[in-house]
Design goal:
Elements (H helix, E strand, L loop, with lengths): L6 H17 L11 H21 L6 H12 L3 H13 L2 H17 L3 H25 L19 H17 L6 H21 L5 H30 L15
Helix pairs in contact: 2-9, 4-8, 5-6, 6-7, 6-9, 7-8, 7-9, 8-9
């Protein structure tokens, strides 16, 4: 004889199913309070990047040449080491360790949607970066202190720093006013990487600005789109929790 289910037991089962769904790939996430506004901001940043890529000349602008000369004038051993540390973090083993350090907690915590969004952002950014490098084909400054490959615009190191730091803020802080301090730190970190690329004389000033725009744009668009897509799926009738029907007295 099968055990009959009461409305209370059905409600409890529905709550457990909802909790399971929230832990899964299709669970609700709240990366932003206003994901549509964030998506619009990300698109706007990407449009700025595209405009810059279309307008940037092959030769350096006056402000870029003066900036590079200033970087040469302020060279010091301590700054050399700092710039080379940034360089290490943006390539090879250093880059891999950064990616692992950000991604492993998501894997351990079974934050599947967050992990997928992070992976997509980190994959899309260098792909667009490489395409832009091939299309713009801007020469690098001469006599760099390190010897990267490829053309100059946009900066791959800076786009990596921007997408990663923006992703860290999105993934590991809650939406709200307190996030402002973390956004500031992400901006400082991205600016540090941008400075290092010009200090090492491997990029012009607008190369690192373009890289910053690209990385931030991709992160905002990917995470906002993921939240909106998940919210749309959650709001479908089949995804809504069934309310128990209590017997009338």
């Amino acid at each position: 004889m099968s055990e009959s289910r009461t409305p209370a037991s059905e409600a409890h089962a529905d709550l457990e199913a909802d909790a399971h769904d929230q832990r899964g790939l299709a669970g609700r996430v709240d990366f932003f309070r206003r994901p549509r506004s964030t998506l619009s901001l990300g698109i706007a940043l990407f449009v700025l990047f595209v405009v810059l890529a279309l307008l940037i000349p092959a030769h350096p602008l006056t402000v870029e040449q003066r900036w590079l000369e200033w970087m040469r004038d302020v060279r010091k051993p301590l700054l050399d080491h700092l710039a080379r540390a940034f360089n290490w973090l943006g390539r090879g083993i250093g880059r891999a360790l950064v990616l692992i350090a950000v991604g492993v907690p998501l894997l351990v915590g079974r934050r599947w949607l967050a992990l997928v969004a992070y992976a997509v952002a980190e994959a899309v950014t260098p792909t667009i970066n490489s395409i832009a490098k091939a299309l713009v084909d801007r020469p690098r400054p001469a006599d760099g202190l390190v010897h990267p490959t490829g053309s100059s615009f946009p900066s791959g190191h800076t786009s990596f720093a921007a997408v990663t730091l923006v992703a860290i803020v999105i993934l590991y802080t809650s939406p709200g006013p307190r996030r402002a301090a973390w956004w500031s730190l992400a901006g400082v970190g991205t600016a540090g990487m941008a400075w290092s690329r010009t200090y090492l004389q491997v990029h012009w000033l607008f190369d690192v600005i373009g890289g910053s725009l690209l990385g931030a744009a991709v992160a905002l668009v990917v995470f906002a789109s993921a939240q909106m897509r998940t919210a749309a799926g959650w709001s479908r009738p089949g995804r809504q929790r069934r309310m128990p029907v209590w017997p009338s007295e």
